[in-house]
Design goal:
Structural class of chain A: alpha/beta
Distance between the termini of chain B: 11 Å
CATH architecture of the largest domain in chain A: 3-Layer(aba) Sandwich
Distance between the termini of chain A: 49 Å
Number of domains of chain B: 1
Helix content of chain A: 25-40%
Low-confidence stretches of chain B: none
Strand order of the largest sheet of chain A: 1-2-5-3-6-7
Low-confidence stretches of chain A: none
Strand order of the largest sheet of chain B: 1-2
Number of helices of chain B: 9
Order of helices and strands of chain B: EHHHHHEHHHH
Order of helices and strands of chain A: HEEEEEHEHEHHEEEHEHEEHEE
Number of strands of chain A: 15
CATH class of chain B: Mainly Alpha
Oligomer: heterodimer
Strand content of chain A: 15-25%
Mean pLDDT of chain A: 95
Radius of gyration of chain B: 16 Å
CATH topology of chain B: Serine Threonine Protein Phosphatase 5, Tetratricopeptide repeat
Mean pLDDT of chain B: 94
Strand content of chain B: under 5%
Chain lengths: 336, 210
């Protein structure tokens, strides 16, 4: 038996369009909606700069619409719920983001996102649109072992790529330099997520997977993909103590490193819980002599009402710190 | 000698669309165990769009019909399934060129080109718990038969057997890959859709062309 969760929506088939209309109406100073599915900057960036786009499934708000704006992305191409947009829409997004400096397609590694980006690149080639490239991004250490990083999924930790790459593309770097920077941030970023509950698909109204009360799973993906197995739910400190060591070992993050930290709320955890979790993470990082340059706590990439979080770390150097501190103005990512 | 003309090909796509729509909830239930639980909804919506766009074609050639189906699946469905089902149709288009009738071997070549495209795009082979498990045996059975009626019959049976074989498999591609052993016992919804498409084609042939 599966329970039904009542969602305050209208018809599921109109959900994505209605959500985007509402989002863009609420933030009309930052974004505008074009052709129903392209969320673009209200003020395009200067000519000659590299355009940044991402196509992704909807249902993870505020990702990625909240990341369109100055110092961030140029265009988000919104797909159906949990399904990347098709190649024709991707090509429309590429054309819209082209300021004359080329366009970089950022792919958060999931099968659909990658396949549709590849198809879009083939269409671009056929249509004579050049100076377009893609970068494959991943961060979730539970989805493939060390040594097989390119098989890993893209999850909440790509937050760091979005922010740093967005800042970089306000500068004069070209497409190849932008791609190299994205890869550098990716290769210094690691994430691990956990979940206490499932969530309901807004399309079907059914819960996406079963999870018994009192259980948790470490390593679960953004769509309930299996992680390291179910176990009895633990307290905050014990949970961090289970998650942080594998995360540190994977890169590895070492004494003397400086890091950015993200605690991403998957949906329905309380801020109170996240602060308690952060307290322990900060203490353990200090114990390992890893210093925190900046930290962020909040719902940046969600999966409906799933109760859980991801812990993400990004090792930074002086260039990356400066990019972090550069201004950004998206509806859900602001840096003064 | 029997052949498939443009009108037949539209009717064939329509038969597939109707069969997939009828099984929408069953496909959603299969997908709930392995994915988001919306495969039935998304593929039936995309097939319905394909039918509309074929009806709207000014020059409904074989080529245009197959391409319209590819585009509808790719662009209306999105996700990995849209890319892969779309690729199945898209890669067949080149084999059609400006043909106005398809004999059995040409139909077989169309299906085989689609299979090769799907395998390349999804990097999946037989045994990976994907639509290839239904599509590969169906294309082989179609090719081995010597006329349409037995080709469709054999392909439908092979696709169904192939789809059912995915129950015992661990997924090696797509989102279900991350379910590991939890995927065992669950039939792949993409492979099931392929079986429905071939069964619809077989029934359509039997009722309209035999």
């Amino acid at each position: 038996m599966t329970a039904r969760v009542h969602k305050l929506i209208n018809r599921p088939e109109n959900l994505v369009d209605e959500m985007l209309e509402g989002f863009c109406a609420a933030h009309s100073d930052i974004v505008r909606l074009v052709d129903k599915r392209l969320v673009m900057r209200a003020q395009p960036k200067a000519p000659g700069k590299v355009g940044l786009i991402i196509g992704c499934g909807s249902g993870h708000e505020p990702a990625m619409t909240g990341w369109i704006g100055e110092g961030l992305f140029d265009v988000n191409i919104a797909g159906e719920i949990f399904a990347a947009p098709g190649p024709a829409l991707m090509v429309q997004g590429i054309r819209a983001a082209d300021n004359g400096g080329g366009v970089l397609i950022c792919v958060s590694h999931h099968a659909g996102d990658l396949l549709n980006a590849e198809l879009a690149l083939e269409l671009c080639e056929a249509e004579g649109i050049d100076n377009v490239d893609m970068v494959l991004l991943y961060d979730d250490i539970s989805s493939a072992p060390k040594g097989r990083e390119p098989e890993r999924r893209g999850t909440a930790g790509l937050f760091f790529v979005w922010k740093l790459l967005g800042a970089f593309c306000e500068g004069d770097g070209d497409l190849a330099a932008a791609k190299a920077l994205a890869e550098k941030v990716r290769d210094n970023t690691r994430s691990l997520a956990m979940s206490l509950s499932s969530c309901a698909s807004p399309v079907t109204g059914e819960v996406m997977f079963e999870m018994a009360p009192g259980e948790m799973e470490i390593g679960m993906g953004l769509h309930g993909e299996v992680g390291m197995g179910r176990q009895k739910a633990l307290g905050a400190d014990e949970t961090i103590d289970l998650m942080l060591p594998p995360l540190l070992e994977d890169l590895p993050f070492q004494a003397g490193d400086e890091v950015l930290v993200l605690l991403n709320n998957s949906g329905s955890l309380t801020l109170m819980e996240l602060f308690v979790l952060y307290r322990r993470a900060a203490a353990k990082l200090a114990e390992a002599e890893i210093s925190v340059y900046r930290s962020w706590i909040g719902p940046y990439a969600t999966t409906q009402e799933m109760a859980g979080f991801a812990l993400s770390l990004c090792r930074v150097d002086e260039q990356m710190k400066a990019l972090w501190d550069a201004p950004a103005n998206g509806a859900y990512m602001k840096q003064l | 000698m029997s052949a498939i003309g443009a009108q037949d090909l539209s009717a064939l796509i329509q038969a597939m669309a109707e069969r997939v729509a009828a099984e929408r909830e069953a496909l959603n239930r299969l997908d709930a165990a392995l994915g988001d639980g919306d495969h039935g909804t998304s593929i039936s919506t995309a097939f319905a769009v394909a039918v509309e766009e074929i009806e709207a074609l000014e020059q409904p050639s074989l080529n245009a019909i197959w391409l319209a189906t590819a585009k509808a699946l790719m662009n209306r469905m999105g996700g990995a399934s849209g890319a892969i089902f779309g690729t199945f149709f898209l890669k067949g288009v080149a084999t059609l060129r400006d043909a106005d009738r398809l004999h059995k071997d040409a139909m077989g070549a169309l299906l085989a080109a689609g299979l090769e495209g799907v395998k390349a795009r999804g990097k999946a082979g037989v045994g990976d718990k994907t639509m290839v498990d239904a599509l590969a045996p169906a294309v082989a059975a179609f090719g081995a038969a010597d006329e349409f009626a037995s080709a469709w019959r054999a392909a439908a049976a092979a696709a169904r057997t192939g789809a059912e074989s995915t129950r015992d498999q661990v997924a090696r591609q797509g989102r279900a890959k991350f379910l590991g052993e939890r995927a065992i016992g669950q039939q792949d919804p993409g492979a099931t859709t392929i079986a429905l498409m071939f069964e619809a084609s077989h029934l359509w042939w039997k009722e309209n062309k035999q």
